[in-house]
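Reviewer 2 asked us to include a model.

Predict the structure of this chain.
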Amino acid sequence: MSWLLNLYETYEANLDRVGEIERKHNAQEFTLLPISHTTQNAHIEILVTKDGEFHSARVIDKDDASTLIPCTEESASRAGSKIAPYPLHDKLSYVAGDFVAYGGKIKKEEPFTYYIQQLKDWANSPYAIQKVKSIYTYLSKRQLIKDLVEEKILWLDEEGKLIEKWDKKYESFIGDKPSIFSVVAGGQESAFIRFNVHSSNEILTHVWKDQDMYKSFIQFYNDLLSDNDLCFVTGKSLPSTERHANKIRNAADKAKLISANDTSGFTYRGRFNKSNEVASISYEASQKAHNALKWLINRQGKIVDQRIFLVWENNGQRIPDPTADAYDTFPSSSSVDTKVEKRSFTNQEFANEFAKALDGYRNKLSSKANVNILIVDSATTGRLAVLYYRNMDKELYLNRLIKWHSTCVWMHRYRKNNNNEYVEFLGAPSSKDIAFAAYGPKASDKIVKGLMERMLPCVIDDRNIPLDIVRSALLRASNPVSMERWEWEKTLSVACSLINKREGYRVTLDTKNNDRDYLFGRLLAIADVLERQALGREETRASNAIRYMNSFSKHPARTWKTIQDSLQPYQARLGTKANYLSSLIDEVASRIKIEDFNNRSLSGKYLLGFYSQRHELYQKKDKKVSNEGVTN
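Predicted model (structure tokens):
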């Protein structure tokens, strides 16, 4: 219950944001829902006057369709032929008193009867405001479809019945296809209607954005709740519920986190007789926890193939994402500054720099703040499961992030800034980029989300990266001819990060490192740079060192002879300009022990040596040696 309690406390800590409209990066609206409310995509908007007269109507654009509506326990979970009206906005078959008269099909009973009685109870309650009464007065006249037909929103066939599905034969007496048929998935009968109140004397807040409307229904519905029981979330005796919210990930999501409708299967057999014996959750706690979860997902959740990765702090403060790379976490601390040689930082020095960057988050959070990490996904359309949950002290969480980005650290060049320019940054790659490095850019969402889940304990629990992930990235980085140049460069730097998590090397070249694999990697880098120097900028084909890289990683001694032989024409072309690199090859090769110069396959260390040596040679600073240096 701890995750439910923290979601409940998140709602309580953000009561001032209830009903406040926010926008995603794609301009889609969302809000922290009031209790007893949900969202629905509306197709038709009807305006009525304060006196309860029809004013006008329009077909709603898809961009404006999301509508916050009041709901009951029954209506929030209605399915199939069950009659459970929403209290105000609902489908045409519920809100239109003349639905049957215009050919509307009903299965058993007329839904309007239940709908109008519920609305009447609200309108006559002491909590009702004028807008509710105006809408009820209009709907009680039972002429909604008649008004919409006259307004040319809904359309009838030759027999005066609602057209079920648009057909070209109707063009003869209607004309072009009406807009209502473009916004509804089924026929006109499935149109969802929302209501608004118009005044010629004042500007009124939209009904679905009106805080007074929210409070009116919450107070009205709260009086209808009964059956107090001990709430396992709050520890208080409150009205309980067995019907819990859906639409958690999006408006069409039918999966529920809490469900107990299997009375004939194995849910309770041998343990309990009734579902509330397992756990009793109050209506208020369920509503607030689920609404907080929906809000957080819209606000800061990561969604991969319908799997939600969510990190939050109860007071609503922004928290660094453990699945993000160092550039996203704090760009200014991880980006390379040419005035400050961050390339030569040790892991501890980089950790100190990253810790300073996170001080902003640390200072905004209270001393008692905790960080919640949650992963949810569904195996079926009706069941949503919590796959992972952790509640951590903020200091522990931030320290784990610092350690992750300072140990799984390498130099990366695949990110772009706001000017669409590539930037270099130090730190760990994102979990998604690790997935693409290990399994390729065409890896399915199922594979990506699985890897992201496996990587999470490595970040926040400081566990070792699974060896199969490291090996897969190593093998792909060792086979550059199988991918485009940009993809290989990205795969190479990500693989180096994963390998360095275990080895703990610096990004800068370690000239004192005499490890066999590291030295072989340096040799390969020097050969690559030398050949590229001879080919010039215009030539884009891969060097022999790159083409033989896969073979080199498996049989270094044998393949090095082939690579060195292929270097001779390029050394001759460069003449004295090749002296520095040629002497560097001799110097590095001489440091490999004779017994180590064999065909035993190379470990991931050779990639670290390759990257660091190549990076060192391509640096302009102090790398041009008069007439025999290296230029890039």
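The chain has a mean pLDDT of 87. The radius of gyration is 33 Å. We have added this to the supplementary material.
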